[in-house]
Input
Amino acid sequence: MAKTKTKRLSSPQELEALRELIVKGRDPNQSCIVICGGTGCLALGAQEVINAFKQEIEKGSLKNKLALRVTGCPGFCERGPLVVIKPKNILYQQVKSEDISEIVSATVKGNIVDRLLYTDPDTGQKITYEHEVPFYKKQKRLLLGDNSNIDPTIIEDYLALGGYATLSKVLFKMSPDKVIDEVKKAGLRGRGGGGFPTGVKWESCRQAQGDTRYVICNCDEGDPGAFMDRSLMEGNPHSVLEGMLIGAYAIGSHQGYIYVRNEYPLAVRNAGIAIKQAGELGLLGKNILGSGFDFSVKISRGGGAFVCGESTALMASLEGKVGEPRAKYVHTVEKGLWEQPTNLNNVETWANVPLIIKNGADWYAKVGTEGSKGTKIFSLVGKINNTGLVEVPMGITLREIIYDVGGGIPDNKKFKAVQTGGPSGGCIPESSLDLPVDFDQLTDVGSMMGSGGMIVMDENSCMVDIAKYFINFLEGESCGKCVPCREGLKRMSQILTDITEGRGKEGDIELLERLSATLADSSLCALGSTAPNPVLTTIRYFRDEYEAHIKDKRCPAGVCRELVTYLIDEENCPGCGLCVKACPVEAITDMGKKKPVVLDQEKCIKCGACYDVCKLGAIIRK
Amino acid sequence: MVTLKIDGREVQAEEGKTILEVARENNIYIPSLCYHEEVTPYGACRLCLVEVTGNGRERLVVSCLYEVADGLKVKTNSERIAANRQMIMELLLARCPNNQAIQELARQLGVEKTSFKLDDNQCMLCALCVRVCQEVVGVSAISLVNRGVDRALATPFYEPSDVCIGCGSCAYVCPVDAIRFEDIGDTRYIYWPNNKMEFKLKKCKTCGNYWAPEKELEYIRKQANLPADAFDNCPDCRE
Ligand SMILES: Cc1cc2nc3c(=O)[nH]c(=O)nc-3n(C[C@H](O)[C@H](O)[C@H](O)COP(=O)(O)O)c2cc1C
Ligand code: FES
Output
């Protein structure tokens, strides 16, 4: 894609003229090979695939026939590296560099490489087009959809799709109040966790007393397993920038920050390139598009502490101080960064803004539920067939997300629970699978939207162990400033460890509940006050598992090592000796052909190797 | 001035003051550990929790940070507040089971024993010493290092601090006596929970008593721009 060298744009007309020029220079029917260069696919070897495509195109002098575009993540990470042939949207999955010459020659001839297509696991049929793959069918990809149409390092790609035209409309045709009204009317709520109404926040910030106002984009994303913000920032950074520009205009701010964790090098890089390119075109900086409005954005790289995603800790960190939260009795919209009115929004929140202004609040509010409008991106991980990023309309049920989009649970295992909302979210049981997903419904069942993590668990998960896992994570991430969070999480972790290791006592459940109440009530920040969720929800929905651990010293899922015993079923054991070989501590003795083996309980370390290797069910786990 | 109600009693207060300050002015008791009027409130011990009703909503806030407002209604005690304070004391008691000040406060708040396993600390990390050292003394010799459960009070890298003047303000301000110092002969010893330091004491020219750390006197002398011999004599022997 040829780069158009342009001077600073000084009017909406010049922006529109540039867009037309870019579009005219592109043939919409030309085949374009789109490769996901997102972090997931890169980890699966996408860079080699990209290089192979470049070589192949070079070799065949196909530059005029075939375009190549490296994009951000389209979501279907499970099947990466992903290649899509545009404009037809043919999807090839798990592509390797050996497949490239075949793909290129087929594409040039207008053919399809059957063997690289996705097979529908239900019907066994091959599926040719991306939008027909079940994973994508129930999604509504208002935000992520453009990822495959954009090379994030080329601003022209964004402009070609009408990028920054919404900013232009805002600057010249809308008053700040009108923008705020529109965002309020759309019902947009913050995607960073709290679900606070974005328009209301903007309005408070606009009305707050101060010399300077700041806007910040929160791309800290510290939840383990979450990668929605990263994918937006990596894949479509201009949409975030445009959102920030619109917000800054509405609020009356001239300086913005993107706070992004250092472990996201690609997000840092792409955001940096986007800022530079937008600046060169006069879409950032002084007198944007000749409107008289000034706005610049700086990137601030965070050290990666989970708590630094919390608004006051983030601002302290931005100021170069220790990233510890403070009490928020004076809101950050009034006194935030350097004591000035500051508006912080999440990456995904910002990316929604151009859509709302472009299409109107009414259009936007058609999607979603009464209290939660638009779409939400989730990172779907755990015991699920289609791991990946999914963008779904608010109000879709958990069942649809897990079974239709996610393709269900692998190996025909039974679903047990889904944990939503990140480490301090709650575990939702099967009985609530038909829950429409929105901010309020998730809170009602004891969990939360959080930033959109979704971890699926199957029958082999022990819910006490799961609670322990999240509490240990939070214990490690607590800043340690306030007593309930620091000391309380430590004690919760001790109690849960005792329960999973057979030292649970009568009264532990009640103690956990009492501790939870104090954390929720008296912690300094939301890390502590939401931390009890995994404990409280697992007690609420899986109390019997806690009781089995405490009273019967038994782990029903067979996960907690100290509480399981392995026995040989002498009737079924043919003495094949597989388990004897598998045992790492020589606890099983071969007694000769056709005689059952003998397991020495004293030596057994309960690793389960024998259980996994025995195909005859002759090892019993109790 | 604003008018608010604390436990049903109408009180007048200066704007900008916190509930805790106003309560103390009016002899209304609210327990606290990390508050001291000389330094910036920190809001870490959470014992000073109170219930406020403003804008029709009732919620728990820490009174050392929450500013008074006209028409605010404050409850300094309730079942919910007491339950929180008691749990906090149980947690502190487990952290510092042998600390007398903590034992006493626990008892006062109705906690005789803790439900948790006992550790053996004296310091409960309220950071009063750190704040006094920084804000009042102005040297920042000690700080809270590490995050989360590993948080600890120490000099940088647990090494003797270059900037510490040995004034002992940290020990004076510690609400639970977790920091101690003693003067033996010509030396002052300061014992923090994780390390200690020694300071040479200055000898009074007249009476010969060792009366204050040399470093501290030097620091004050420079700050106040006093002549070189300003502290040759101890306060008792000065005219
Ligand atoms: C412990 C903790 C971690 C958080 N981490 C993030 C984060 O990584 N990203 C984020 O956008 N918000 C995070 N938040 C929420 C922010 O404090 C804040 O509410 C949000 O960024 C506001 O943006 P929004 O209104 O667009 O949601 C976190 C909150 C807490 C308490
Ligand atoms: S005195 Fe208010 S939190 Fe410690």
Summary: The mean pLDDT of chain A is 94.
